[in-house]
Request: fold
Amino acid sequence: MREFNVSNSLLFDRQALDAAWERDGYWFFREVLDQSAVGRLRAVYMDTLMAAGVMDRDATEPLYNGASLENFKVGVNTGRAEDVYADPLLARHPMKEFIAEPAIRDFFKKLIGDEPWWVPITEYHAAPPRTEHRANRFNFIHQDSSHNPGIPFRICWIPVAAIDGEIGGLALTEGLHKPRPDDFARPPEGIPQDVIPADSWRRTNYRPGDLLVFDLNSPHSGIANHSNRYFRLSMDIRLLRASDMVPTVGTVVGVDQTSITIAGRDGRDERFLFEDDTYCRGYNGMRIPIEDIPKTVKIGDPVIVASENGRARVIRPQH
Reply:
């Protein structure tokens, strides 16, 4: 795969950044995130892996110690709610401390020209090395817009430790963020590899402090970890401008066949009506039929609701 176009020279030049985004659908920056902040984030990952018994206590790199991975839950999203909430890394939720770091907050504020508004959707990855190697290294080719209608966030993918070609990382397509009328299908279930132009794929050897920001319409995939020694540590978070039409975030206080009511962060209850095209997303990313929403979404569940004129466009869990 070819390397990314590096956007460091465009930093804080709004016109140049917008032009690069329009052309490529991403920005890739080399070592722009505060190294101390990234180091503190990495320390939480390392400590969690040590507590899980898969990394030695004296390790200074994310080295696998060969312990059993049979019950490994750190940074692994199987799509089952019980596994999501069993993840000890998610329980520690280091993203909150990371985005509160002054250097990190100031960088993103300057990058987007507004106060950053973080969508409560965080993916922690601590992919272990595997002895069995698949010929196809794409884990799951997809784009985020197909199951997040009404939340036009930008995805920020952050390597927490060094990631080379063996460890894998993330592969992203360039210039495929604007679907055309005759374009290939992009369903939530995943995109077949053979419909994507092979020369559109990009990746690099990632270093701590790097940042990849990309459009939610861009097909992308994790790359299988073929290292026999190292965990692949990364985090992806979702960004909006505070002045954007941000979704409602809160807990479910009522749900029936026609609507859902959310107790928002501001203390107010809001009711949203269902439409035929309301997308209710489960933990596995797949769509829940409207008639099954009252059986699946429970009182007290933390959710995100994007709406228009009081009608729900998407309902999805926080994590």
About this structure: The chain has a mean pLDDT of 93. The first strand starts at residue 26 and ends at 29. The chain has two domains: 8-241, 248-317.
